[in-house]
Amino acid sequence: MQVMIQLDDINDRILSQLSRDGRMSNVELADHVGLSPSACLRRVQELERLGVIKGYRAIIDKSKLGNMMTIFVMVSLSGQLREDSLAFERAMDSAPEVTECHNVTGTVEYLLRVEVADLSTYKDFHSNRLGILPQVGAITSYICLGTSKDERG
User: Fold this and answer.
1) Do residues 14 and 47 make contact, with C-beta atoms less than 8 angstroms apart?
2) Tens digit of pLDDT for each residue in 111-123?
3) Considering its fold, how many domains does the chain have in total?
4) In this structure, what CATH number is given to the domain that contains residue 39?
């Protein structure tokens, strides 16, 4: 069972600032949230210790590296056993094209975010990686034409 952590207004402001700019200095952060730098650092370290802050990372513009296409893929599994889900998730963990794998409710079991250089690369992933898995019952692909909002950090 996961324990819910209660956050006060200052911790909410800390998280909000860090989600916008995880590289901001502790002094800048303290100034934004109205704390001394030492008090701010203690709070950030406690949020990290509790697992509220899981890490920091760079947001990469993959179009600059050649990965220009994002495809959202809905996957239905052929079986409903836990082993089917675990095997599928393991396969997606080892697929570099899959940048997100979400187990969802509704008419399908999984929503994938797939990032590839071009349609030919996606076709290869679809046919030779995803389509050969015995757990996969159906695949529906949606090519992303543009993104007006993306706040993933």
Assistant:
1) yes
2) 999 999 999 999 9
3) 2
4) 1.10.10.10
